[in-house]
Design brief:
single chain, alpha/beta, 5-stranded mixed beta sheet, binds beta-D-glucopyranose
Amino acid sequence: MLKLSKLATAVALVVAGAAVHAGEVEVLHYWTSGGEAKSVAELKKIMQAKGHTWKDFAVAGGGGDNAATVLKSRVVSGNPPAAAQIKGPAIQEWASEGVLANLDATAKAEKWDELLPTVVADVMKYKGSYVAAPVNVHRVNWMWANSAVLKKVGVTTTPKTWDEFFVAAEKVKKAGLIPVAHGGQNWQDFTTFESVVLGVGGAKFFTDALIKLDQKALTSATMKKSLETFRKVKGYTDAAAPGRDWNLATAMVIQEKAAFQFMGDWAKGEFSAAGKVPGKDYICAAAPGTANAYTFNVDSFAMFKLKDAGAQKAQADLAAAIMGTEFQEVFNLNKGSIPVRLKMSMDKFDDCAKLSSKDFVDTAKTGGLVPSVAHGMAIKPAAEGAIKDAVSQFWNDDKISVADGMKNIAKAAATK
Ligand code: BGC
């Protein structure tokens, strides 16, 4: 009898404990392509193994613009998700509204300060406290190519300069294939644009023009050359590009319909999900002229202030899981990115990831490491939106001259 009552008490305690400790975690993200969905499923698994309930809040739309709009309306109506995929200066903007939870207890227990590059930790903090947990490091200035297509059209070496690239693109075009797979959102246009600017002008010019938004740089001869090169790339895309999702453009390269794509290494997640092998089926190379530079894009989750104790515990567990070695490895193997946590083994990663990891470290020393503007890492959302629109207008309307395009971009950059 005594034993039974003890057992009952123990069960009651466990149940009570579970009620306090397990919680629902609603996670807003925009990882909906094949490779992305596989990656986020790993986080869900880890959270479920900890006893939490994962409420998936996926908002389709590469680059996250749609997700950002949905998030705003949820927060404004007083019903924020537990966690949302937010990054770069937008983290600071949300934190300044007073709606983000403080993650310092988890960060301290898990030693985040020791495990993160300072350049990343700074972005995750607001007034010295962690308000977001970083997931990965994506490199944006990549060029992807289908090996069989290049072989078929007689391109024997991967183009390293824009001049070499246009020679190769011409060969692809003559063979009746699409040289550049491209889609139709402004962030996709800007992903290509920033690689062109980096390749034509180098990391210092990139910083002056696109991060410091220096008017002199934005109206310089180097910017003129960048826009001319950018327009030339456009000439090698197909007429059906407008409105196309980025992953469908990657699929064109995978399916040997197109030769190249300029896209961050989430594209590798699509190649991997399709069973393709780097170095054999496809090539990953720095975009022309950018081998010594690296545009970085760090995905992260910010947590919103919630009242429920179970939900708070779930948030803390989510933050800890995101920075844990298990998640950092399996997620990034699927996603195409590299772990953001320092001192992780790269043994299981492919050559593209190993190159990314090496270049991330090397470019940090040489000054070639720059935040991606296309992916919300560098400037305030208002100016970013305005220059993205100006760049897309130029890309989509051949009647806008280079001189006018340059003026429009410089004007947009002055948006406060
Ligand atoms: C995000 C990636 C995502 C890509 C396409 C980028 O801005 O950082 O995680 O895969 O957009 O949606």
